[in-house]
C-alpha cells in the first residue's frame, strides 16, 4: 500500500468512527434523561457528523474516482466501513452511552492532538478544528463517568457494568496496524506507544476518580473494525442510515 | 403557536372601575405597553394563564423533536442530516429557554412536565401527526415552523418580559428553519425525480390542514381569547393569524408547483385575502383530547425518557452534593 492509499484508508477510519457514533447519538433524539442532555447529545453528534464530512471530503479528493463524501457515507456496505467496533455498540442505558463516549473521546482527543502536528497540512487543519470540539466532548463525558460512577449506589453499579461491557472493544483504540504504523513513521499519524500511554493514563485516572474498578490488563480484546470486520450491529445501523439513497438510486438531489 | 386553547379561568373581564388598585395599576401598565417583569405584582389568573401558555409552548418544542427524530437517523445526505440535527438542537434550546421563562413565574419545570405526562398539560396538536416520508422534514420546516412564526412574531410584543424576550430569540432561529425547510421542498420539486415530487405533494396533503389547525379554534369558539388579549399575552385573534398565514403561504405553495388539498382555496379580489374551506373541527378537538394518530406514542416516548432517566438525574444530584461536601470540608 503506498502512502496515499494508507492515508485514504486512515481518513475513512476517522470519518467512519465519527459518523457511526454521531448516528448512534441521533437515535437518542427525544429519549435523553433531561432536556439539557437532549441538547448536549445532539450538539456532540452534530460535531461528529460534521467532522466525518470533512474527513470524507478529503478522502474523496485523494481517491479522485468521482465519489463524493455522501457516496462514501451512504453507498459503502459494512465490510467497507472502517470504524472502531466500540462506536457501533448500542446506546444501552445512559451509563453505556457515556462509557462508550468517554472511551472514544479519550482516544479521539489524543489522536487529534497528535494529528494537529501531522506533516500533512490538510489533515492537521481538519484535526485542529475538530480538536476544539472534542476537547469539550471529553470534558463532558469524563464528568458523566464520574457523576455516574460516584453518584448513587445504583448509578455506580450501572457504570461499572457499562465499563465491563465495553472494555473488550477498547483494545482496538490503542493498537495500530500496518496502515497506521506506515503513517506514523511518515509523521502523518500518531505514534502507537504514545497514544496508548496517554489513553491508558487518562482512562485510569477518570475511572479511579469515579470509584470504578479498572479492568485487568490482560483482558481479551475484540478487534477488526478498522479492517472492516464488524459486530452484528453495523449492518442495521447502515440499513437505517442509508435507506433513502439506496431505495431511490436515481435521485440526484435531496 | 404551540399554545392552543389556553384557559384563563376568567369568566368575565373586569373593567378598570371594577378592579382593585393593584389590578388597575397592572392593567394600566399593560395598556401602556410596559413589560411586566417577574418581580412585579400580577393577577393570579394572569400568572396561571402564562404558566399554562409558556409550558405548552415549551412542551411543544420538546415533543416537536420526536417527529424529526423519526427521520434524523435516515436523512439522505450529510448536509441534510447536519441541518436537521442543528434544528433539533435549537428546539431543545428553545424548550430550555421557555422552561426558564416559565420558572420566573414561580412554576416548577418537573411538575409541569409531570402534568404533560399525565395528560393534564397540552402541547401543539401538530406533533400528533406522523412524519411518513423524507419530504415531511421540508414540510414541517416550511408549514409548521411557518405557522409557529406567524404566531410568535406577534408574541414578541407579549406583555410578559421574559416570554417576550424568549420569543425574539426563538423567532430568529425559526425563520432560518423555515427557509431551510422550504429549500428542501424546492430542491425536490425542481431537480427531483417523479417519485421525489410525489413525496412532496403527499407531504403537503397530509400537513396542510393540521398546520391550519395550529392557530386554534375559530374566534367564535375561543372563549379565553378576550381575556388573553386584554392582558396582551395574545395579540391577534386565531382567525386573523390563520388568515395571515394562508395569505403568505399560498404564493409559496404555487411557486413550488404544488397544490393544497382544499378545493375552496382561492383568491378573493374583494377582501384581498384567500378564501379557504372549513377546517375539520371534529378532528381538531379529537386530536386535542388525545385521539390523534401519534398522541399516545409521543407521550409514551417522553414519559419513558424521563422515567428511565430518573436514576441518572439522581446520580447527578448525589454527585454534586458529594462534591460540595468535599469542597466545604477542604475549606
Report on this structure.
- The complex is a heterodimer of chains A (254) and B (331).
- Chain A has 254 residues and is mainly alpha-helical.
- The longest helix of chain A is centred in the N-terminal third of the chain and has 29 residues, at 35-63.
- Helix content of chain A is 68%, strand content 0%.
- The model of chain A has no long low-confidence stretch (mean pLDDT 97).
- Chain A has one domain (3-247): Ferritin, core subunit, four-helix bundle (Ferritin, Up-down Bundle).
- The radius of gyration of chain A is 18 Å and the shape is globular.
- In chain B, a hairpin with a 4-residue loop joins strand 1 (266-268) and strand 2.
- The N and C termini of chain B lie far apart (50 Å).
- The radius of gyration of chain B is 21 Å and the shape is globular.
- Chain B is mostly helical and 331 residues long.
- The longest helix of chain B has 31 residues, at 161-191.
- The mean pLDDT of chain B is 94.
- Chain B is built from 13 helices and two strands; from the N terminus they run ααααααααααββααα.
- Chain B has a two-stranded antiparallel ribbon.
- At the A-B interface, helix 2, helix 3, helix 6, helix 7 and helix 12 of A face helix 3, helix 4, helix 7, helix 12 and helix 13 of B.
Amino acid at each position: 500500500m503506498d502512502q496515499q492509499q494508507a492515508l485514504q484508508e486512515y481518513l475513512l477510519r476517522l470519518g467512519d468512527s465519527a459518523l457511526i457514533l454521531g448516528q448512534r447519538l441521533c437515535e437518542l433524539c427525544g429519549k435523553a434523561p433531561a432536556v439539557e442532555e437532549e441538547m448536549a447529545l445532539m450538539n456532540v453528534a452534530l460535531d461528529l457528523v460534521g467532522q466525518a464530512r470533512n474527513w470524507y471530503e478529503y478522502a474523496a479528493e485523494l481517491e479522485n474516482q468521482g465519489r463524493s463524501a455522501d457516496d462514501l457515507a451512504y453507498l459503502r456496505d459494512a465490510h467497507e466501513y472502517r470504524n472502531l467496533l466500540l462506536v457501533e455498540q448500542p446506546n444501552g442505558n445512559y451509563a453505556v452511552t457515556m462509557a462508550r463516549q468517554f472511551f472514544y473521546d479519550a482516544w479521539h482527543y489524543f489522536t487529534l492532538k497528535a494529528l494537529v502536528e501531522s506533516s500533512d497540512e490538510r489533515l492537521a487543519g481538519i484535526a485542529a478544528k475538530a480538536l476544539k470540539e472534542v476537547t469539550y466532548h471529553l470534558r463532558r463525558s469524563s464528568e458523566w463517568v464520574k457523576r455516574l460512577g460516584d453518584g448513587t449506589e445504583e448509578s455506580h453499579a450501572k457504570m461499572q457494568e457499562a465499563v465491563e461491557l465495553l472494555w473488550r472493544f477498547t483494545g482496538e483504540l490503542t493498537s495500530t496496524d500496518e496502515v497506521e504504523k506506515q503513517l506514523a513513521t511518515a509523521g502523518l499519524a500518531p505514534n502507537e506507544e504514545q497514544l496508548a500511554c496517554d489513553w491508558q493514563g487518562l482512562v485510569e485516572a477518570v475511572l479511579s476518580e469515579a470509584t470504578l474498578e479498572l479492568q485487568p490488563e490482560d483482558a481479551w480484546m475484540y478487534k477488526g473494525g478498522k479492517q472492516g470486520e464488524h459486530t452484528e450491529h453495523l449492518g442495521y445501523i447502515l440499513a437505517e442510515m442509508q435507506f433513502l439513497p439506496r431505495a431511490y438510486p436515481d435521485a440526484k438531489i435531496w | 403557536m404551540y399554545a392552543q386553547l389556553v384557559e384563563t379561568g376568567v369568566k368575565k373581564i373586569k373593567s378598570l372601575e371594577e378592579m382593585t388598585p393593584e389590578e388597575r395599576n397592572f392593567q394600566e401598565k399593560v395598556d401602556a405597553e410596559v413589560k411586566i417583569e417577574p418581580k412585579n405584582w400580577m393577577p393570579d389568573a394572569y400568572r396561571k394563564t402564562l404558566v399554562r401558555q409558556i409550558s405548552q409552548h415549551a412542551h411543544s418544542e420538546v415533543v416537536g423533536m420526536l417527529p424529526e427524530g423519526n427521520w434524523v437517523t435516515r436523512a439522505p445526505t450529510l448536509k441534510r442530516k447536519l441541518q436537521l440535527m442543528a434544528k433539533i438542537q435549537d428546539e431543545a434550546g428553545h424548550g430550555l429557554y421557555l422552561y426558564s421563562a416559565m420558572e420566573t413565574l414561580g412554576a416548577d419545570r418537573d411538575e409541569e412536565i409531570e402534568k404533560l405526562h399525565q395528560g393534564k398539560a397540552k402541547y401543539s396538536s401538530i406533533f400528533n401527526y406522523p412524519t411518513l416520508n423524507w419530504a415531511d422534514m421540508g414540510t414541517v420546516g416550511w408549514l409548521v415552523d411557518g405557522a409557529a412564526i406567524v404566531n410568535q412574531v406577534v408574541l414578541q410584543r407579549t406583555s410578559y418580559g421574559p416570554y417576550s424576550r424568549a420569543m425574539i430569540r426563538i423567532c430568529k432561529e425559526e425563520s432560518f428553519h423555515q427557509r431551510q425547510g422550504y429549500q428542501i421542498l424546492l430542491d425536490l420539486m425542481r431537480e427531483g425525480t417523479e417519485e421525489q415530487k410525489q413525496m412532496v405533494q403527499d407531504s403537503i396533503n397530509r400537513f396542510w390542514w393540521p398546520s391550519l389547525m395550529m392557530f386554534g379554534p375559530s374566534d367564535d369558539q375561543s372563549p379565553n381569547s378576550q381575556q388573553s388579549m386584554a392582558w396582551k399575552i395574545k395579540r391577534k385573534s386565531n382567525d386573523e393569524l390563520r388568515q395571515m398565514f394562508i395569505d403568505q403561504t399560498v404564493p409559496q405553495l404555487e411557486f413550488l408547483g404544488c397544490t393544497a388539498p382544499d378545493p375552496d382555496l382561492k383568491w378573493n379580489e374583494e377582501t384581498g385575502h384567500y378564501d379557504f374551506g372549513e377546517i375539520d373541527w371534529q378532528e381538531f378537538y379529537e386530536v386535542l383530547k388525545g385521539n390523534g394518530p401519534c398522541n399516545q406514542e409521543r407521550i409514551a416516548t417522553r414519559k419513558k425518557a424521563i422515567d428511565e432517566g430518573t436514576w441518572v438525574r439522581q446520580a447527578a444530584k448525589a454527585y454534586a452534593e458529594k462534591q460540595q461536601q468535599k469542597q466545604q470540608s477542604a475549606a
